[in-house]
Amino acid sequence: EDESFILPVLLRFDGYPEVDDK
Length: 22
Prior knowledge:
Blueprint: H1 2-15
């Protein structure tokens, strides 16, 4: 279940390289 949320999150982060604060 968590993987279903992590996969899309990783894809979103890939599109937001500026959000590398964490």
